[in-house]
Amino acid sequence: MVALTPTAGAGGLAETQTGGPATSSRRRRRPGIGRGLVLLICGIYFIGPLVGAFWFSIQDKVHGGVQFSAYAHVFSAVGFSDAFMLSLKLGIGTVLISLLLMVPTMLLLHLRAPKFRPVVETLCLMPLVIPPVVLVAGVGVVLAWGPNQLAGTPLQTFLNAIQSGKTPWVLILEYVVLTLPFTYRSLDAGIRSVDIHTLTEAGLNLGAGWGTVTMRILLPSLRTSVLNAAFLSFALVFGEYTVASILQYQPFAVFIVAAGQTEGQLSTSLSLLSLLITWLLLLLISLLGGRNSTKVDI
Amino acid sequence: MTAQSRAGSSSEWSPARPTADPGQVHELADGSAPIVTLKRRRSYAWLGLTPFFLYIAAFFILPTGTVLFSAFRKTDAGTGVTSFTGSNVSSALHGVYFTGIKNSLTLALITGVVGALVGLVLAWAIVSSTGNVLTRFVSTAAAVLANFGGVPLAFLFIATVGNSGLLTKALADHFHINLNSDLHFDLYGITGLELVYLYFQIPLMVLVITPALEGLKPQWQEAAANLGATRWQYWRHVGAPILAPNVLGAALLLFCSGFSAYATADALTSGAFPLIPLQIHAVISGNVLAGMENLGDALALIMVVIVVPLMVIYQLLQRRTTRWLR
């Protein structure tokens, strides 16, 4: 999506192409006061709460001045490590399952079953349309069938198993659904940017089997988009609140809110950290994508 | 892409056809290795898609469909018989739930429209002042706030303009201004929600509209200028008509995102403010009278009925504009 128009926006390139320096220079001479004002006001609105929250989180309310105890004591806060580990587990589980499900599906879709693409695309983008709170309401209803309508059947055992136990599998299973739009888009963009048909044909003609083609051609050339999908899914799961809190689990985001009832500074510092980590993750993706997008083109 | 429908020579993905298919393996006359091309043929590749369809059916369509179905079901408290009824939906449209729907619609409308306008202007300001590093920083930051903000956003604002927030205290201490009584600002009410929602709505608009703005080719502007058009005329007759469907679509997307948002509002108001997503949570957690168990499903149905058509229109508008902006 970002790479739609590589030349546009630069302005300078067009000048040389069309040979219209007179018109372009008129555009450039504008002082841009309006632009500066817009950036300034929006800058204040967006940076203000960040600075405010940071200052709030390092205030020493007892002695006055500045102290970093809210950050220093993050790891020793009661319940933090449990919540953090749970989020980590959920994130990794979601990434693995969604890649395991979607990478073969997407390859198959592009190479062998393209007529199913509209259906799969619509289904994958649906979780963006249906509000998560609606989905989780439905999950609640289905889970409640276990001890009622489905009592005594293997399905009850299954529904029990995904709810209790060390890993709340029900969250992972639903998070895979919530991350589908991101996974689909990343993988789809990755597959489109490489001419996998030619590569596959070339591989097959050189005597490789489908297994070799998949492992040594397709997956390596999709490396970036697979990583992309993984990071995006992880970021989404890490900050997910709606489903977890309604189903009464306590991963990271739910912990932040729970801590906020008593320790404002702790949840403020955790909020800042969470935004920072997510931002760094996305920055990493953008750097990865930026470097590879020129290489991948054939 | 449709013409590139593929089928391979190997039987790996098509167990029903173990032998090579004459449509795509060409034996050379001299008997050397066959040339493989991936041509269209009747394929059983769709079998490979069954895990995906089963997964979606079990963990997405089943729960969502169940909600929409049970919105019309009611168990009679006396007889224990479950039957079809419109009473859940009708209760969901009255009283405190009507207030919730109204609040949610207002919040989504205001933050959608304001977010779309401010986001459009901001996106224009960012696009027209290019700097590669800055753009990358801003676009990733916008993605964080728009998609992954949720709970943290609430705490940023609580720390800044909440009851014991930094700015609240500073104003009170140094200027004797009370945010609540003097400026009529309440972070935990509708004004506060609007302020916080814009913190993810504006970035969402920037994300969605930036490709469209970048798609406006400089050549168009130059062509217009060379034909004697002023900047205003260019925007009036070229820029605005091309962008209009996109901006409208983005505004719809923002409306839906504001309407569906749960985490920020829940964290900010502890679930107390009457908004439809928060009410769904309250109802399905059991905070209802007997005989109203399916009220939450009815509320969910109302959300779906509002959101889905708008998102369909959004998709159609997006499709319409990609014709020009590529």
Commentary on this structure:
The complex is a heterodimer of chains A (298) and B (326). The radius of gyration of chain A is 25 Å and the shape is globular. The longest helix of chain A has 33 residues, at 264-296. Chain A is 76% helix and 0% strand. Mean pLDDT of chain A is 81; it is low at 1-29 and 292-298. By secondary structure, chain A is mainly α. Chain A has 15 helices and no strands. Chain B is mainly α and 326 residues long. Chain B is 64% helix and 3% strand. Chain B has helices at residues 50-70, 87-92, 95-128, 132-148, 151-161, 166-175, 190-215, 218-226, 231-260, 263-269, 276-284, 295-322, and strands at 25-26, 35-36, 73-75, 82-84. Chain B has a two-stranded antiparallel sheet with strand order 1-2. In chain B, strands 3-4 form a two-stranded antiparallel ribbon. At the A-B interface, helix 1, helix 2, helix 3, helix 5 and helix 6 of A face strand 2, helix 1, helix 3, helix 4 and helix 5 of B.
Give the CATH superfamily of the largest domain in chain B. MetI-like
**What radius of gyration of chain A results from the CA coordinates?**
25 Å
Oligomer: heterodimer
Q: What is the helix fraction of residues of chain B, given as a range?
A: 55-70%
CATH superfamily of chain A: MetI-like
Question: Can you tell me the residue ranges of chain B where pLDDT is under 50 for at least 5 consecutive residues?
Answer: 1-23
Main sheet record of chain B: 2 strands, antiparallel
CATH architecture classification name of the largest domain in chain B: Orthogonal Bundle
Number of helices of chain A: 15
Give me the number of helical elements of chain B: 12
Topology of helices and strands:
The complex is a heterodimer of chains A (298) and B (326).
Chain A: H1 12-18, H2 21-29, H3 33-58, H4 69-72, H5 80-111, H6 117-129, H7 132-145, H8 154-163, H9 169-193, H10 196-205, H11 210-221, H12 223-239, H13 242-246, H14 252-260, H15 264-296
Chain B: E1 25-26, E2 35-36, H1 50-70, E3 73-75, E4 82-84, H2 87-92, H3 95-128, H4 132-148, H5 151-161, H6 166-175, H7 190-215, H8 218-226, H9 231-260, H10 263-269, H11 276-284, H12 295-322
Antiparallel strand pairs in B: 1-2, 3-4
Helix pairs in contact in B: 1-12, 3-7, 3-9, 4-7, 5-10, 7-9, 8-9, 9-12, 11-12
